[in-house]
Write a structure and sequence with these properties.
heterodimer; A: mainly alpha; 4 helices; B: alpha/beta; Spore Coat Polysaccharide Biosynthesis Protein SpsA, Chain A; 7-stranded mixed beta sheet
């Protein structure tokens, strides 16, 4: 029992640390980070108090977790975290692009007005 | 005062009913400043009304949120080398005649950022109770981190100088930026001070933050502040 607790505990701390480092490096937006930290904390709580899990098992009638399922879940979690980070970077790039387009349009508009005025005064 | 180039940044999202009067009001009280309305992907006629009222208008192609909207304003301020940029919301909550009070500490060189506070001074401003709890919580945290007294860190009515413009146009938080940006500014060594201001009740539209919004707001801002403490200053 203790080994399981240690293993799952280490896994959740690992995820928590990865998420934290990703936010610190501005690679993960807080929008996603809040959810991730929340899930990691729940994982941590379950690994410290496995009795809670047994309660849920009793209610749902699901008792056995195969190694295959465990690894699939870990694999999926890692991929989803990777996606969250990619999404954060994409929306950051997307934001920059939108800002530049907005500023450029204003500049174009200003330039368009100026030559017109010059023509008017010349004629 | 005339020698300083001042830009008033007005973030606006679907504010067609109030934007003209906000721009005209600023013009009336401060004839020598430039006004930039940053239209955050409005679906109404905010942009046309702002142009008609005589402001510069940046139209963001889609809704980016208040953080990116303000950052766009600061980017413009930096590129056009303004000395001072002031945030004045497009919904008419921030009374333009108080902008002068806001920029005074900057002109005197006493601060890099002057933040408006509804609670300094005796203007009797009352907010809803959950919001007051949030404001007290954030004020305490900010005061502890920055060693500067803050009473109203969620208020967006602010004036910043060239140093702060440079910093904000390079990095500005995404959503709910008001509190977090003060922590980041403190880490950059920018001097801050609160200025008492009076705020109008909102004329049009409603607060952008609902019940679940305020819960998320609190968690998100606390997390962001916590993480910011570990970020490198650069």
């Amino acid at each position: 029992m203790l080994e399981v607790q240690i293993i799952t505990g280490v896994i959740s701390v690992f995820f928590l640390a990865t998420v934290f480092e990703a936010i610190r490096r501005k690679k993960l937006m807080e929008k996603y980070a809040v959810l991730w930290i929340f899930s990691c904390l729940i994982m941590l709580v379950f690994s410290i108090f496995p009795q809670l899990l047994f309660k849920i098992s009793e209610i749902l009638g699901v008792f056995y977790l195969t190694v295959l399922v465990l690894f699939s879940v870990l694999f999926l979690l890692s991929i989803i975290l990777h996606f969250s980070i990619s999404l954060s970077q994409l929306s950051e790039n997307n934001k920059k692009l939108a800002q530049e387009i907005g500023l450029m349009k204003l500049k174009l508009e200003k330039n368009k007005d100026e030559p017109k005025n010059k023509q008017n005064t010349g004629a | 005062m005339q020698s300083k180039k001042i830009l008033i940044v007005v973030p606006a999202f679907n504010e067609e009913k109030s934007i003209s009067s906000v721009v005209q009001d600023i013009r009336k009280h401060l004839p020598s400043v430039d006004i930039l309305v940053v239209n955050d992907g409005s679906s109404d006629r905010t942009s046309e009304k702002a142009v008609a009222a005589g402001a510069f208008v940046v139209d963001l192609p889609y809704n980016l949120g208040i953080g990116a909207t303000m950052q766009t304003g600061y980017m413009f301020a930096e590129r056009e080398s303004y000395d001072i940029a002031v945030q004045c919301d497009g919904d008419g909550q921030h009374p333009p005649y108080q902008i002068k009070n806001l920029i005074t500490p900057l002109l005197e060189g006493k601060a890099d950022i002057a933040a408006g506070s509804r609670f300094l001074g005796n203007f009797g401003y009352r907010s809803s109770i959950p919001r007051q709890i949030g404001i007290i919580l954030f004020s305490g945290i900010l005061t502890a981190i920055t060693k500067t007294r803050f009473t109203d860190p969620t208020c967006g009515f602010r004036a910043i100088n060239k140093r702060a413009i440079k910093s904000f146009s390079a990095y500005y938080p995404h959503d709910y930026p008001e509190v977090e940006v003060l922590v980041l500014a403190h880490k950059k060594g920018l001097k801050m001070r609160e200025v008492p201001i009076r705020i109008y009740k909102r004329k049009e539209g409603s607060s952008s933050i609902g019940f679940f919004g305020s819960f998320y707001y609190t968690v998100k801002v606390l997390l962001a502040i916590f993480v910011d403490l570990f970020k490198s200053a650069s």
